[in-house]
Every structure is written in C-alpha cells, then in structure tokens.
Amino acid sequence: MATHVYKRTAHRWRLLAIMLGGLFAASGSFWLLQLVNEQGLQVQLERSNEPDYIVDNFSFVRMDKAGQPKYVVSGDRLTHRPIEDVSYVDKPVVQGMTTEHPRMTMHADRARILHEQDQVELIGNVDVERPGNATTKALSLKTQRMTVLPDEEIMKTDLPVEMKLGGMLVRGTGMVANNATQQVHLSSQSYIEFPPRDKR
Predict the structure, then answer these.
(1) Phi, psi (5° rounding) for residue 80?
(2) Strands (E), 115-178
(3) Which of 147, 96, 146 is nearest to 126 (CA)?
C-alpha cells in the first residue's frame, strides 16, 4: 500500500514539474515576443520620422487674416519631420513684415519651427535687429536661445541677454519682449548703462 502511494506522489511531482516547465517556457516566449515587437515598433517609428521633405535656400511667408504678409522665415536648409511636425532650419532668418510696428530681423545658427504651437525656437548666436524711426529707438539684442511667437510679436528667453536701445546698454537674465506694445521685461540681474547726457 505504501509503495502505491509513493508512486502516485512521485507521478504528481513529475506532472507538476512538467507543468511548471511549460509555464516558464510560455512566459519566456511571451516576453521574447513582446521585446521583439517593441524593438520593431521603435524601428518603425524611427523610420516613419525620417524627413518627408528637405528644401534648400527656402523662404516662406505667413499671411494674416486680411491676406497681408505678416512675417517671412528663410534659411539655408529646412528639414521637416512628420511625426513631430517640426521643421529644423539651418541659418534661419525671421523677418517681421507688419507695417503697424517697426520691422524686426532675427538671425541664428539654427532653429526649430513648431508648427502646431506656431512658434520658432532660435538657437545659437541669436541676433535681433530693429531699426529706429521718428517715434522708436533702434534696438539690437543678442542671446544664445530665444523663443519667438511671430503672430503675437513676442520674444522670450531664460538666458542672459544684451540689448542696445538707442544709446542705452542693458544686460540681464531672462527676458520677455513685445514688439506690438514696445515693452521689454528683464527677469533678474539687470544692468543698465546710460549714454552721456549730450548723446541722449
């Protein structure tokens, strides 16, 4: 009787070991399949985010609601990536075309145009120039990175800036400038140098 019970127990242990082995094999196969699928999806995403068009020596004009040119973006090369809906620009130039305010021209080493947000990120040696007129002093501004909202005529950065307004020199860290309202706000560490009185 004891021998019969022992054989039955041993048979159950063998069956349990086989079932556990099968379970581990199935789990391992499922994990491997998931890993392969994830890697394949990643490769597919990378491939689908390859540029869908590249334009050399480009220029495009953004129109306002009245059909008048609002600003122009040009550059040496524009590369558009479809998944991000972002255009990467080499040597960008952004020029305001509005007649209501003095026109600004912005240069940089490169830029990202975020189409959904309607904004341009200028990166590297950002240089902004605005000529003066009878009511507005000439403006020159330099920084290393700037976010431009062309439709609102707003420029902003968190980095150090150097600005010349007429004969006045202003340095600071962090800036928001609104060309439509002619207002400039410096966040911190501001330094202002006024020209001699006879040159004002």
Answers:
(1) -105, 130
(2) 119-130, 139-149, 154-165, 168-178
(3) 146
Q: Contact 69/62 with Cβ under 8 angstroms?
A: yes
pTM of the model: 0.70
Banded model confidence at residue 13, pLDDT cuts 50, 70, 90: low
Q: Does domain 53-199 have CATH number 3.40.630.30?
A: no
Q: What is the average per-residue pLDDT within 156-185?
A: 87
Q: Are strands 93-96 and 53-63 parallel, antiparallel or unpaired?
A: unpaired
The residue to which tokens 């007429």 are assigned: 166
Which residue type does 148 have?
V
Among candidates 113, 28, 43, which has minimal Cα distance to 78? 113
Check if the beta carbon of residue 127 is closer than 8 Å to that of residue 108. yes
Name the band, by pLDDT with cuts 50, 70 and 90, for residue 118.
Answer: confident
CB burial readout 41-64, b (16+ within 10 A) else e = eeeeeeeeeeeeeeeeeeeeeeee
